[in-house]
């Protein structure tokens, strides 16, 4: 899901290369991964927040413009805004779908064959 965000790879690269850790290679790797994990948690909260609530807000905006359009004809600027809100909603739906797909894989990997009737 994060890979869909423009500039994410560059952000990761800057975080990774911006850290200076001394010690053995395994210590450096472990330390950098811990710092990256914290950075990702903060970044995720700031950029995505709650996928469900962001999707809901976007849907409310789409419904608003649908309501306005049902009452009167939209001017060109409003039509453009309506199109952008629909694209924004589609983006949040897509990101939520990716999130759930990733979560289902994680559960499958953790549960494995214990999730079936075969033992």
What would you say this structure looks like, in words?
By secondary structure, the chain is mostly helical. Helix content is 76%, strand content 0%. 2% of the residues are buried.
Helix content: over 70%
End-to-end C-alpha gap:
34 Å
> Can you summarize the main beta sheet?
none
- The total strand number stands at 0
Structural class: mainly alpha
Kindly give the count of domains: 2
Oligomer: single chain
The shape, in one word, is elongated
| Unreliable segments of 5+ consecutive residues | none
Number of helical segments with 4 or more residues: 4
Residue fraction in strands:
under 5%
Order of helices and strands: HHHH
What do the pLDDT scores average to?
Answer: 84
Gyration radius (Cα, Å) is: 21 Å
Q: Short description, anyone?
A:
The chain is mainly α.
Structure keywords:
2 domains, about 120 residues
Strand-helix topology:
Layout lengths: L7 H11 L6 H23 L3 H21 L4 H36 L8
Helix pairs in contact: 3-4
